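Researcher: I'm preparing a figure for a lab meeting and need a structural model of a single chain. I don't have an experimental structure, so a prediction will have to do for now. The sequence is pasted below. Please return the structure as tokens so I can convert it later.
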Amino acid sequence: MTNTLQNTSSELTAFLGQTMLFSGLPESQLVKLATIAILQFYDKDESLFQQGDTGAGFFIVQSGRIKIFKLAKDGREQILHIFSEFDHFAEVPALDGKPYPASASAIEPAIVLFFPRQPFLQLLEQQSDLAINLLKSFARHLRHFSNLVDNLTLCEVPTRLANYLLQLSQQANSAETVTLDLSKGQLAARLGTIPETLSRVFAKLKRESLLDVQGMQIQLLDLERLRELADQQDK
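Model: Understood. Here is the structure written out token by token.
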């Protein structure tokens, strides 16, 4: 069950100053933001909100990971994005008051800061720097979802998987062995496919000596060919 507790203003102020959304704001503004933030705790698989719920506010992840997803009519899940420490999400519903366009739940135990809509709007009217940061945030999210649409509509599953593995490698300083940060079921949902198809793609790339799979550890055997695969699009 989700719990809330009183914020420690100094700790929250320091944390907020490290987030991309609030970076560069003077301490006086960060203090005001800390006063309206509500600390919330979520267990693994616990829902933050469902698609269609009223857009009551937005969130910043303090620890753990949160997935944003949609469900198809057949119940299949499509993960749109995964947010981790310092990331923020659901700003648009917090501004326009319309329902959340997707659902959110915790992949693992998580702590998030919730910013209620009305108090945040009042601060936004007073702080032009905050408004500018928010516009930058919208641009980043728009770019991400544009890339996601391109990936799902123009790329086959092997290309999507190659892109994902190369991103993990880049995050690990170009490591040739990466650790999956999602279960294979969650990864299938992230890549817009089903677990059975993903397993077949892993097996195919293993047969072609592009990678080796040992549980959650993936050894990238041929980075050059993986990059070539990642660049492929449907014509």
